[in-house]
Design goal:
Strand order of the largest sheet: 3-6-9-14-17-19-20
CATH architecture: 3 Solenoid
Radius of gyration: 16 Å
Helix content: 10-25%
CATH class: Mainly Beta
Length: about 180
């Protein structure tokens, strides 16, 4: 593994135009393009493409196209989890989806971030922080999960919420910014 890829996966500043990362991104985009073009009748082809693309796809997991991601290999989806249409996963850092997770349509899991200092940003450095979604969680339609967030087990996030901070296990959380409403 090259230095920039290693830095990216460790959450340090890295250069995305590094040749290894550019090649990884291209490989991912080609697999995503093929996955998104499959017919609903091509379940075996879809599954094979997802297994080639992702770091892990648990038994009985389903992801419906269209899907968008940057690299694929940092994504781990647990058993029996469901990702509906239109998911965007910026996976410059690990994205872990537990078992039995429900992700509604139009959800964005965004690990990518950029330096606040404009001079550093102009130098083309970026970074990322991992996202983790606990077993049995449910993310409603259009939820946005920001870099570095952990969503607890069996937690429900209401549609349209923007999750900027960790959420504990077994709560209902909604809003922008997302806040815990009550325990479940």
């Amino acid at each position: 593994m090259g230095e920039q890829k290693d830095r990216m996966l460790r959450g340090e500043l890295y250069l995305a135009d590094d040749p290894e990362l550019v090649a990884d991104h291209r490989r991912c985009r080609l697999l995503v393009e093929r996955f998104n073009a499959t017919s609903v009748t091509d379940q075996e082809e879809r599954l094979g493409l997802l297994r080639s693309l992702l770091g892990h796809l648990g038994d009985g997991a389903e992801i419906r196209p269209p899907l968008q991601c940057d690299y694929g290999y940092p994504i781990r989806v647990g058993a029996r989890s469901f990702v509906n249409y239109g998911a965007v996963i910026l996976d410059c850092a690990p994205v872990t989806v537990g078992d039995d997770v429900q992700i509604a349509s139009g959800v964005q899991l965004l690990t990518a971030t950029h330096p606040l200092d404009a001079a550093v940003r102009r130098s083309r450095y970026e970074s990322a922080r991992p996202i983790s979604i606990g077993d049995g969680a449910w993310l409603g339609g259009g939820v946005i999960v920001c870099p570095g967030v952990r969503i607890g087990e069996e937690t429900v996030v209401g549609a349209g919420s923007v999750v900027t901070r960790d959420l504990p296990d077994r709560v209902l959380a909604v809003g922008n910014p997302c806040r815990v409403v009550r325990a479940l």
